[in-house]
Amino acid sequence: MENILNKDIRAVIDQCPEVGRILEEYNIGCAPCSVGSCLVSDVVGVHGLDPQTEATLMYKMEKALYPDRDIPEPKVDMSKVVPKEINYSPAVKNLVDEHVWIKRLLALIPTITDFVEKSETVDKDLVMSCIDFIRGYADKFHHMKEEDILFKYVDEKSEIIKVMYDDHITGRNHVKNVVEGAESGNKAQIKEHLHGYRDLLTQHIKKEDEILYPWIERQMSDNQIGELFQRCSAADASVGEELPKKYEKFIIELEEKFAKEN
Amino acid sequence: MSDCCPGSKTMDFSDDEQTEDETGARQSQLKQWPIQLHLVSPQAPYFQEKDVLLAADCVPFTLADFHKDHLKGKSLAIACPKLDSDQDVYVDKIASLIDDSKINTLTVMIMQVPCCGGLAQIAKSGADKATRKIPVKQIVVGVEGGQVLSEEWL
Ligand SMILES: [Fe+2]
Ligand SMILES: [Fe+2]
User: Does A224 reach chain B within 8 Å, measured CB to CB?
Assistant: First the structure.
């Protein structure tokens, strides 16, 4: 079994698509992942399954890959496996709460691109105000805390962290394209890349909330949790409490604007 | 409580040499004296910027590996929310630990009995009263079998 643990998940799924389906059954969605170069051992380890569930998952994958091998089935009472609510430490809880504001913008994107498409000329101010939120709040305020502080507590060379960095970079490319579209009045470009950003960040946030953050926290000592909290608080203090408030107000007003128009 | 009383005299022996010996007698992970919340000074040197464990009196007797799994690396205070008097002092001491000694985290360990929730409440009130904010964790220990039942950041 060890040999499959050290393989790229993408290679394993390509070799045996059934493995992808089995992972899906355990809510491990490697199919939509943007990179998919994680090792099988990381993919399984990162989800923090209880030992019995993990054993069953490994058994099923091995069985799918090597149907001829004689592998004993682990005895598991699935009825006893209860999904537990994720408990984040305060600093990480703040990051999860920030995701909620970002998701509120993502939810508005189809409405915004519809509005842009239907109006005679591109409302550049509207598009650029969304870009300002993405750059000022999602990227600068939020992603910087991840990149400069949180991710430093784990091996930054691990595939999972690389995937997160890649997502941040892909997001910035979408933003660049939206800005270009707004400058030139190219509605199709704005739509394509705002939707691209929306799809990307929806997956990205889900991965962070459900998998990455809990995985990082499991590796941290209480001492590091306390230090993380102080460092994130200092980062927040350095930008001032007005900055997040300003962006939260922007989202509320944007929601109100489009609620009225519909 | 005068400083002459050996029962409440502040001592910090965290710098004492220690050798690991897991095969024979284990070493204590306690690095300070006193430990009772009424007896400790919240500004004692052994609390400065430390991760602090506030354990209900019954907790260490219930967990065989209390030293290794919970006390190690932490400074300690113990209290009983059911029997101790003057518990307002406790709230102020927690607040002082956070504000004056700038402790890094506070972990409150309680037993799975209703009255023990009082200690978690004291910890929360102290943390609310403090102007500095720190992560506070609650660990609940089962009476029977000495298992950790839950562990969560509040
Ligand atoms: Fe991220
Ligand atoms: Fe994030």
Answer: no
